[in-house]
Design goal:
The complex is a heterodimer of chains A (131) and B (68). Chain A is an all-alpha fold. Chain A has helices spanning 2-24, 29-59, 65-94, 100-126. In chain B, 65% of the residues lie in helices and 0% in strands. The chains are: A mainly alpha (131), B mainly alpha (68). Chains A and B meet through helix 1, helix 2, helix 3 and helix 4 of A and helix 1, helix 2 and helix 3 of B.
Chain lengths: 131, 68
């Protein structure tokens, strides 16, 4: 029961954070840091779960080498975007959340990472994986 | 990001927590953190880059994978 409550709580925060994140950068810097960090950490779990689900599908012999390579490429693109996001987050955090250009860079990195994770999930789904 | 994708992400997080109970503890630690430091971001970066496609999907060989 407690675990279920936590799952719902975490999911709700994720959904809210992804929706409001772009708007928060123009306001309080501290809040933006926390939201960006929590969103990033949670979405990383999402990407990894999608690839793990794909692996279950692959273990059943339902994928081709070409499909595997496509998922790998999409996942590595996500990883690259995530690395940029973390670098931008570190720079923003180092500035105490008051550096406007760093905030803009972080916001853009969040959007880029969001796009790549969407690509990973959609690609896996097009191959028939149930998520 | 559209609502359907958000719902999917929430579902994936729930699935991850069910499959890997340690993830719940990791997320709890992250969600109780106040201001992330540069070290926190770098730790997150290291964790994600350490999860290669091959480690997450060992049963999905690619053309460039070394022969077993």
């Amino acid at each position: 029961m407690k675990n279920r409550k936590y799952q719902l709580w975490a999911g709700l925060i994720l959904a809210v954070s992804l929706i409001v994140l772009p708007a928060t950068f123009s306001g309080c810097g501290t809040t933006a840091q926390q939201v960006a960090y929590k969103s990033a950490a949670t979405t990383s779990v999402t990407a990894e779960t999608a690839v793990r689900a794909y692996n279950v599908f692959a273990a059943q012999g339902k994928t081709t080498v070409l499909q595997n390579a496509q998922v790998k490429a999409a996942y590595e693109k996500y990883q690259a975007a995530f690395a940029v996001l973390c670098d931008a987050g570190a720079i923003y955090a180092a500035g105490g959340g008051t550096n406007a250009p760093a905030a803009t860079a972080l916001q853009q990195a969040v959007l880029n990472t969001s796009a790549t994770i969407t690509d990973v999930v959609n690609l896996v789904k097009t191959f028939g994986v149930k998520l | 990001m559209n609502p359907a994708m958000l719902a999917l992400i929430v579902g994936l997080v729930e699935q991850a927590i069910k499959l890997e109970p340690t993830i719940a503890a990791e997320l709890k630690a992250i969600f109780t953190k106040t201001d992330p430091t540069p070290a926190d971001w770098l730790a997150l970066r290291t964790r994600v880059l350490g999860q290669s496609f091959e480690s997450l999907a060992p049963d999905a060989p690619t053309a460039d994978a070394p022969p077993v």
